[in-house]
Amino acid sequence: MKKYVVAGWLLFSAFVFSQKFEGLALTPPMGWNSWNHFGCDVNEALIRETADAMVSTGMKDAGYRYVNIDDCWHGKRDSLGFIHPDPDRFPSGMKALADYVHSLGLGLGIYSDAGWKTCGGRPGSRGHEYQDAMIYAKWGIDYLKYDWCYTDGLKAEGAYLTMRDALYAAGRPVVFSLCEWGNDNPWEWGKNIGHLWRTTGDIAVLFDGEVNHGTWSSWGVLQIIDMRQGIRIHAGPDHWNDPDMMEIGNGMTLSEDRAHFSMWCMLAAPLIAGNDIRHMGRETRDILTNKEAIAVNQDSLGIQGFSVMLLDSVELWAKPLMDGDLAVCFLNRAKTEKALQFDWSKNPIMDEFAEKEFHFDKAVYRIRDLWKKKSAGSTKSVLKRKIPSHDVVMLRLSR
Ligand code: GLA
User: Fold this and answer.
1) Residue 269's closest CA among 248, 249, 242, 235?
2) pLDDT at 300
3) CA-proximal residue: ligand 1, atom 11 (nearest)
4) What is the CATH superfamily name and number for domain 306-398?
5) Neighbours of 361 (CB within 10 A)
6) How far is the CA of 119 from the centre of ligand 1 (A)?
7) Of all atoms in ligand 1, which is nearest to the CA of residue 181?
8) Disulfide-capable partner of 147 in 52, 113, 178, 352 (CB 3.0 to 4.6 Å)?
9) What pLDDT sits at residue 18?
């Protein structure tokens, strides 16, 4: 009898104490993160002003929800091992900041690292996982990005499991973002641990190329898109491939920003803005808040788009959507303008993974241009467009 009680308890505790918070990211998470624009220069005024801007710019209305503080918010651990925010940068403390962000109907995110130190050299969570998770819950944190610096000797899956369990035990639902750069194929084991996992090293403010930092590189938008093949089968509601936070508004051309955003929508990528949204121009704002493009990203089927074909440097991407719709994106990868002529009737689009087929010779689809925000005829006619270098034509097809 006793052994059944023990077995029952073990089963019960495995279920109750070790799981991720389900259902927090049924569509890709949307928000903002400090790192891409501000690096280590974070403080409470920036976070408050950014939360305000999230509302005043219409980003909240477009679906953005999380305001995420990346590296370097940390002060020291106290004699009991509890972490405190940097008192000069966050004098009011994290609880007050979280209360403020919550008062605007938004969530607050924070950053830590599975190793002994964060990438910026601040205290990591190694050995303090349950303490840190408890403190985050007390502060009212809603999102944790968990990095992978200074982890010599650790196995990624185990380290991330520990933090998942710590967050769960602390009891406050937290979106858990795994950031180990795709080193150990997190798409193969991340689904039951977190809600999203980085698939590559860091993005750069660059559309096509590599920035060499000596011991590591950061990557252009095209490189990140190309880097991992075949991993779309691992993504879906509540578990997303994360090709990194966006660089829109950080210095690429308007075409490049538009193409970058369109592709993140096509890839069902988390949409985490990485610019200074307090001072962005209208064009940047219009890209980040394009609701029709965002609807492609947030489609409830949660199918990650795929590359269909390459036509003289113009890559055709497709993403099946609810109600039999299809998003398509023609991405001009070239450094020159390209003239596109696309005969739908001769090019059926087949998605073997999602088991969806689109035969334009048998069924006519209406076309909506998601950047011009108007209808663009139907698949009966050949599509003819000039696409500027590093720009896109993004369409939604409906019956
Ligand atoms: C790593 C991550 C980045 C950022 C920095 C912070 O490089 O991949 O996204 O969080 O650390 O130091």
Assistant:
1) 242
2) 98
3) 119
4) Golgi alpha-mannosidase II (2.60.40.1180)
5) 12
6) 6
7) 8
8) 113
9) 77
